[in-house]
Prior knowledge:
The complex is a heterodimer.
Chain A: E1 8-14, E2 22-28, H1 32-43, E3 51-56, H2 68-72
Antiparallel strand pairs in A: 1-2, 1-3
Chain B: H1 17-37, H2 46-74, H3 80-85, H4 105-126, H5 132-160, H6 164-177, H7 189-196, H8 203-220, H9 243-257
Helix pairs in contact in B: 1-2, 1-7, 2-5, 4-5, 4-6, 4-8, 5-6
Amino acid sequence: MADSQLPLWEVFTQPGHGEPHEHAGSVHAADAEQAMQNARDVYARRGEAVSLWVVPSDAIVASAPGDAGPFFDPGNDKAYRHPQFYKVPRGVRVF
Amino acid sequence: MTAPSVAGKREEVIANPLFEYLLRLGDDRLVLGHRMSEWCGHGPILEEDIAMANIALDLVGQGSSLLKLAGETEGAGRDEDALAYFRSEPEFRNAQLLELPKGDFAFTMVRQFLFDAFSVLQWDALATCSFAPLAGIAAKALKEDRYHLRHSSDWMLRMGDGTEESHARAQKALNRLWRFTGELFESDAVDAAVHAQGIVVDLAAIQSRWQQTVGDVVGRATLTVPPAGATSSGGRRGRHTESLGHMLAEMQIVARSHPGAKW
């Protein structure tokens, strides 16, 4: 069903300084200022965030479900792609 | 000419001006907060509904802190709930502006803007007053009200400079509300008495800065500041419009039906 409301914005919140911004959800808003205010009211009202990003949803390029195979199937048949494949030589300090 | 003995200006001795002053501050926020809370579940879109409920909660919270402090100042054993739920209409000290029914969205938001622009200036002055408990409440409330002002200013611009319909509704609300704004800047013996106690709020300076802010936002919203005219006031002395009684009946019924109930 078509969305009859204002344009959609994706909201990213940063839970603490130095931490990455994480996707929190989305809001409807007419422009960036209103999106920022709505994001604050919906997702950052109880001290959940120290910083907010809002991004027009249609500015996000998402992978398609059909890409899942070629994009994400792990290359398990190529064991050498995983670090565990390599033995640590004797005498090398393990961190 | 002698002053009429009835309905004239009363020069009564104020027993506890600080208590009176805190009631005025607290009742402004409690009454406006309740009016804003009436939008809960009825907002134009979900996000705005949440925003309005947040603003209402901030205001009721401020009112609660102020009435608690008022009760302690009075020293008669009344807490914030007793003051909010067990006073009748003539005992309320809010400005009439804040008790008017919520009207349409434009009316609510224009009123909120007119009060927010005043409130941030009032808190700014009170944050440095010498009565520490009040200065503390003011510092916290100032942050909240700065956000409220940002929100309501944004709606002023959006409605005024929006569609023909939104512009007309915002202008109509501004015209209707204008005569109630003067009361915010009135001062009397209570203000003078708390001034002597170190609570210094220069209402004339606040009024001139308020006019600047309001003039600027109203202008950018392509709306027109209404001409100066008669002022409606009396709330500070317990004289209210017919709306407050109806509002209090709804606000107080649960507490009065079940006194002392805990939840």
